[in-house]
């Protein structure tokens, strides 16, 4: 726990650090299992996908979306795809709000008590050479109830590069060009105000 910044890793309440450390450990285990299933699904026998995420940067956030009497006039989160790798989201209540886009239409994703929502990010899209696609989503506030979620995010790279897994390219052509992680992050930040998905610029 020494590598966490003290301002982001408080000592009060006393049980916070241990509880969060335990939670992160279990979330890492869950992510490894999911990545292992994905690796098997795409024929990644050497589990390069699992290795791409092992020891990489992780982050966690707790989000609260207050109720809004005019939900049709605001957005809790604007439409986007997750720029990083793998997102695991836990609803702490039964308030709806998350929506995904498919074929030009928005569909609600209703909370399921005790279940995690697994969201594929753009990096995972690239790593799997498009086998797993990132999904555009947004959050709409509820008129009467607030919404609280806990989000766990993992980042993945191949030797510091955002690139298709080498093993997959033995039998298929790359659908994305390779780019260094730092340049990838810069590209995302530049693309956001322009309203474009940076990952789309990597397609070949």
Automatic annotation (TrEMBL):
Domain Fe2OG dioxygenase: 56-156
Pfam families: 2OG-FeII_Oxy
Alphabetized PROSITE patterns for the sequence: FE2OG_OXY
Alphabetically ordered keywords of this record: Iron, Metal-binding, Oxidoreductase
GO molecular function, one term: oxidoreductase activity
Protein family according to the UniProt entry: Belongs to the iron/ascorbate-dependent oxidoreductase family.
Protein name: Fe2OG dioxygenase domain-containing protein
Organism whose genome encodes this protein: Panicum virgatum (Blackwell switchgrass)
């Amino acid at each position: 726990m020494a590598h966490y910044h003290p301002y982001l890793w408080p000592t009060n309440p006393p049980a916070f650090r241990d509880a969060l450390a335990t939670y992160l450990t279990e979330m890492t285990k869950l992510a490894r299992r999911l990545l292992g299933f994905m690796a098997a699904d795409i024929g990644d026998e050497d589990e390069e996908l699992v290795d791409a995420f092992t020891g990489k940067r992780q982050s966690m956030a707790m989000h609260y979306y207050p109720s809004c009497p005019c939900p049709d006039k605001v957005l809790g989160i604007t439409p986007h795809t997750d720029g990083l790798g793998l997102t695991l989201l836990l609803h702490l209540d039964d308030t709806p709000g998350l929506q995904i886009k498919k074929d030009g239409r928005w569909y609600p994703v209703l909370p399921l008590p005790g279940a995690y929502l697994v969201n594929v990010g753009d990096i995972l899209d690239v790593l799997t050479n498009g086998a797993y696609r990132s999904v555009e989503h947004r959050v709409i506030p509820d008129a009467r109830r607030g919404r609280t979620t806990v989000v766990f995010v993992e980042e993945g790279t191949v030797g510091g590069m955002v690139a298709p897994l080498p093993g997959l390219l033995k039998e298929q052509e790359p659908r994305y060009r390779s780019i260094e992680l730092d340049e990838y992050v810069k590209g995302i930040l530049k693309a956001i105000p322009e309203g474009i998905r940076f990952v789309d610029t990597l397609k070949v």
